[in-house]
Specification:
Strand content: under 5%
Helix content: over 70%
Number of strands: 0
Number of helices: 9
Structural class: mainly alpha
Number of domains: 2
Largest sheet: none
Distance between the termini: 21 Å
């Protein structure tokens, strides 16, 4: 299986078992929504950023994963600032930044196969009750994780191709081919899940 985010290493974060990392991630994610003080959120963001540094992925790799999110955060921050003021905007950006950094630290230091295994083991009791197919859900997660970096590569390819045609500023010429490719790939993912469940 492709490892779109995982970075090989033997550091402390790499050695922590995947279930523990996911439990901490879930707990921290829930806890961040209970914190509203800017100094507390700033400290949480600093700790999350430090964990990303400890993942030893390199600044270039981290930027490649994050640069698509920067414009979105800029828009969210600007809108929040306009409607609710800068303290609220800072609160939102620090909280989202901490959440994203924590999730990135986990995915950089945890193999996709380990994440899928934890998902399947967690859902197994529900499978015994007949509520879900744990293997099928785990496969859907695996294909989705594989799908995300592929969308980004498609975006880069289409942008370069349209730039060569002089259409780099034409949003329509970029979004339509990307949407077509994404929908086609999503259909293939759905077919793969159906085949696994059959």
């Amino acid at each position: 299986m492709m490892e779109p985010l995982y970075v090989e290493g033997n550091g402390l974060l790499h050695r922590i078992p995947a279930p523990y990392k996911l439990i901490v991630l879930l707990a921290a994610g829930a806890g961040l929504f209970l914190v509203h003080r800017l100094d507390g959120l700033a400290a949480a963001f600093a700790i999350a950023a430090l964990l990303v540094v400890l993942a030893r992925a390199g600044g270039g790799a981290v930027w490649r994963h994050m640069r698509g999110l920067v414009p979105i955060l800029a828009v969210v921050g600007a809108c929040t600032w306009y409607f609710d003021g800068w303290p609220r905007a800072a609160e939102v950006l620090l909280r989202v930044g901490a959440l994203v950094a924590l999730a990135l630290a986990v995915t950089l230091t945890t193999r996709t196969s380990d994440l899928i295994r934890v998902c399947e083991q967690t859902l197994y009791p529900l499978e015994r009750l007949g509520w879900v197919d744990a293997g099928r859900v785990a496969l859907a997660l695996a294909l989705t994780l594989r799908f995300i970096p592929e969308i980004w590569r498609n975006y880069q390819d289409i942008r370069e191709a349209q730039a060569a045609r002089g259409l780099s500023r034409n949003a329509f010429a970029l979004t339509v081919p990307l949407l077509v490719r994404t929908l086609k790939r999503a259909e293939e993912v759905a077919d793969a899940i159906d085949a696994r469940g059959g």
